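Q: What would this chain look like folded?
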Amino acid sequence: MLGKWLTSAVAASAMLLAASFAVSSAHAEPQTIKIGVPGAHSGNLAAYGLPPLNAARLMARYYNERGGINGMKVELLVQDDQCKPEMSTNVATKVLSDGAVVVMGHTCSGSTIAALPTYSNTILMSPSSTVPELTLSGKYPTFFRTIAKDDDQAALAVQCALDRLGAKRIAILHDQGDYGRGYAEYVKSMVEKDGRAEVIMFEGITPGAIDYAPVIQRVGREKADVVIFGGYHPEAAKLVTQMNKRRLKIPFISDDGVQLDAFIKMAGKNAEGVYVSGPKDISANEWYKKAREMHLKEYGEEPGHFYYQAVAAIQALLNAIEKSGSTETDKIMQALRTEYVDTPLGKIRFNEHGDAEGAGFSLYQVQNGKFVELN
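A: My prediction, written as structure tokens:
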């Protein structure tokens, strides 16, 4: 009986000790800083999502080789949403269940919008989601970004069409997604408000379609003297190629979803003369040079689209964690808004809406197979 009693007592003590350890562990400081990295890492839009992933990996190594942040190493939780809103909620749930303290992603605005309700208590910082309502609506207080808004680049498109090209009849096309349609709607509103030109078409196209002949024929019939397109490079490349095949040689203006080398490769000579908006040239910045060299050394090629914005996002998040001395969302948010950090974009912090102060767009044109920044 005594032996049985002793066995029961030992078992009870062990259970009590285990429970006590579990409680203390639940309140212990994390041993690593886990950063979620959701994005388009495969699929048609991987050209936008892989450069930010490379940035996250390189910056995690950079900080870890220097001892981490506040004594903790950086750990990445990588998830692929292929820029598909229907996948992004599950991806967001996964990175949070795995313990992400902060998140750098998603790549596309549609995926970001779909996932944001899941991040109601966690900071999400995107290097590439440009829909203005993400910061201006007030619906997403934990959202931040290191890229300017679509209304900023829409203004550049309208200025190009009206002032540079003297357009009077403007055809506006979009891919029906949150990003492309939103950009197109801002363009339409700005053209109509200005009053110097007429919007003679506002039409959505189907992403992935092989032939855009009907809409291109209508552009010709309506005698448009410029086309402004909201969307991504695969559709833009098809549009300009098919327009040129039909000898419809009118200026084509688009957004930063088109400002990457993949567009020029897909469109070939048809890309010549195309105008796009994109992040300002920051090549003189010291951290830009350092981040570029890191990428060249690791991957043997130039960084892709949104790489530098992603480097800045990781730097800003880790700087805020370090300066606040905390992994609590409210304290990190306060530090993001008050503490400057040196990045490839320059010295930045974030305004009350979550937009990076100092980030902006420029107008580019494809000249001799390269994007050239215009004055």
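The CA atoms of residues 340 and 348 lie 5 Å apart.
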